[in-house]
Write a structure and sequence with these properties.
The protein is of the alpha/beta class and 573 residues long. It has 2 domains: 357 residues, no CATH class; 172 residues. It contains 20 helices and 17 strands. The strands form 5 sheets. A 5-stranded mixed beta sheet has the order 9-12-13-14-15, sandwiched between helices. A 4-stranded mixed beta sheet has the order 1-2-17-16. A 4-stranded mixed beta sheet has the order 5-8-7-6. The longest helix is centred in the N-terminal third of the chain and has 29 residues. It is globular, with a radius of gyration of 26 Å.
């Protein structure tokens, strides 16, 4: 009889299987990283149909158990890379290495899912049957979805919504590509498939640079800093410029690979997707294209890179942003198409926070201004009067009670809205960080209380003088509403009930509830409508059944995941 609980047994099993898997890694870790990256990019591109559609990730199809085997495989790779950093990239004939990479990703996916089951059991979202049976049975114990699923769904919806903003420009570029296909085919016919594509023809280079810039523009909401903000020795403008060039080159590489394979059918596309590159050549090409000095370019590349030093930080939690670049050693790297075309700014943000914590937090105040301006775009009609900045509310003795991040007055209805805006970083990289994110957001309850107490002591109309005395002259506030909005996060699986004197939500949730459209002159009660919609919305309630019965084989044992306890009992009886 085992003295270990079933959770402890599962953890022990995962650790044993992980160590067994580690022994299968080839001695040259550089080759392993390239092969695994190529395999991951191949699966990613096969899912992207068409490639220029809104960015998606296969985890969206199973939001509870993310297929995060690549993260675990990278941790295993980089854990041994320092001991054997030699780079011997696979060539098209190395089918054995490709098969190994596919098998490793599959087995790592299963291990990662097992770890997610354990994490969900710790939070109470899942329960595990105890006893002497060999296998593991778990079921969903809560009707609320986990915090990370809500976060991922909001971000996916927001990304898709903003991508539609640039559909016309993307379509124009896609149409222009038809005229360039002959040049692509001609270059591919004389191209060495394992060579770089920094330079092709001026017309092709210009086209893909414009395409890269458009893709970056469509994801700029992930990295909201003024262009000249200095972080980690580079300006935000340079980080953006470097990313646009890299994405353009990556998209050009994909198209050239496809053209090359069409001309050489015996060559497999997946073997060409992740060419290893020398750092010196990449820095030189980026410097020439951007007009920036090499040292600064090198700093920017470092901030987009996964290394053995930061791998545990970025890859320890499932569903987090994929790295755009992977450092093989001091002289070599490989790009990840999955990372470059997915959420590269979110990876960059996290890396800058790790590398340059002081600068990062010192610049965080600009997030509030960006958030405020996004909010004000929903209230752009002249009927609304808005505060230029945050407003301080002081007590009887003149001491600061709290501040309000945004004030909006509707002259048509006499309604005043007070907004608390919270700009957290997305994605927790540990359970402890998720708790800190939760506590930070719920601390806004103190601000809600302070606002309520101030309004009880003062006339709300007194706040109108803080806006525009001329516009609000002789007007009075008829009704006040309080809002607390998080940029990415608001709804925590294990959070307490919200203070119902305010409406709480995320920015993507607000956009969804108003159908992404600003309020107009004829809208009857826009502020009250938004308030009521937020109060009635239930973001943590899944719209459909979470999952069917799933089997996760790990070694000789299996985890059975059931959608609820009733289904579990029915299956085992």
């Amino acid at each position: 009889m085992s003295l270990l609980s079933k959770q402890e047994q599962l953890r022990q099993l995962i650790d044993e299987q992980q160590e067994h898997l580690r022994q299968t890694f080839p001695p040259q870790m550089g080759s392993a990283i390239v092969a695994l990256t190529g395999a991951r990019d191949w699966h990613y591109l096969m899912f992207q149909r068409p490639l220029d559609a809104a960015h998606r990730d296969d985890s969206a199809h199973n939001p509870y158990l993310y297929p995060s085997g690549w993260y675990k495989a990278l941790q295993l790779c980089f854990g041994k890379a320092a001991d054997s950093p030699n780079v011997s990239p696979p060539n098209p004939g190395q089918r054995t290495l490709d098969a190994w990479a596919d098998q490793v990703l599959l087995e790592c996916d299963l291990l990662a899912k097992g770890e997610q089951v354990l994490a969900y059991c710790e939070t109470g979202f899942m329960r595990m049957q105890q006893g002497e049976q060999e296998d593991f049975s778990v079921w969903l114990a809560s009707r609320n979805m986990p915090t990370e699923w809500r976060e991922r769904e909001d971000l996916a919806w927001w990304t898709s919504t903003l991508a539609r903003t640039y559909e016309h420009e993307m379509l124009e570029l896609a149409t222009g590509k038809i005229a360039l296909q002959q040049q692509i085919d001609a270059f591919a016919s004389q191209w060495q498939a394992d060579g770089t594509v920094y330079r092709t023809t001026p017309e092709l280079d210009d086209y893909y640079l414009r395409l890269g810039r458009l893709r970056v523009k469509s994801m700029a909401y992930h990295f909201f800093y003024p262009a000249q903000t200095l972080l980690g020795g580079c300006t935000v403008e340079l980080y953006t410029q470097v990313l646009a060039i890299l994405i353009g080159w990556a998209l050009k590489h994909i198209d050239l690979c496809q053209a090359y394979v069409a001309q050489h059918p015996s060559c497999a596309l997946r073997t060409l997707l992740a060419p290893h590159q020398t750092m010196a050549a990449l820095v030189e090409a980026l410097s020439e294209t951007s007009g920036s000095d090499r040292m600064t370019i090198r700093r920017a590349l470092d901030a987009y890179s996964l290394t053995h030093e930061n791998v545990s930080y970025h890859c320890s939690v499932a569903g987090t942003p994929v790295p755009p670049l992977l450092r093989l050693d001091e002289q070599h790297l490989v790009w990840s198409l999955t990372g470059l075309l997915g959420e590269p700014f979110l990876f960059l943000t996290r890396e800058l926070k790790l590398r340059n914590s002081y600068e990062y937090h010192a610049a965080a105040h600009v997030h509030e201004e960006f958030f405020r301006q996004d909010l004000y775009r929903l209230f752009s009609d002249k009927r609304f009067v808005k505060s230029a900045a945050s407003i301080e509310l002081r007590g009887v003795q003149g001491d600061l009670s709290t501040d309000v991040d945004a004030l909006i007055f509707d002259r048509k209805t006499g309604v005043l809205a007070l907004f608390e805006l919270k700009s957290q970083d997305p994605f927790a990289y540990s359970r402890q960080e998720r708790i800190r994110q939760r506590n930070y957001f719920y601390n806004a309850g103190k601000q809600v209380l302070a606002c309520v107490q101030w309004l009880n002591r003062h006339e709300a109309s007194a706040l109108l003088t803080r806006l525009d005395p001329k516009l609000v002259k002789r007007l009075k506030v008829q009704k006040t509403y309080l809002f607390v909005l998080g940029r990415y996060l608001a709804h925590f699986f294990d959070g307490p009930a919200f203070d119902r004197r305010a409406a709480w939500g995320t920015w993507p949730q607000v956009l969804r509830l108003v159908n992404e459209a600003p309020f107009g002159a004829e809208d009857a009660h826009p502020i009250q409508s938004l308030y009521n919609k937020l109060l009635k919305d239930t973001p943590l309630a899944p719209l459909s059944p979470v999952l069917d019965v799933q089997e996760i084989p790990i070694g000789e044992r299996t985890i059975y995941v059931y959608p609820d306890f009733k289904t579990y009992k029915h299956q085992v009886e």
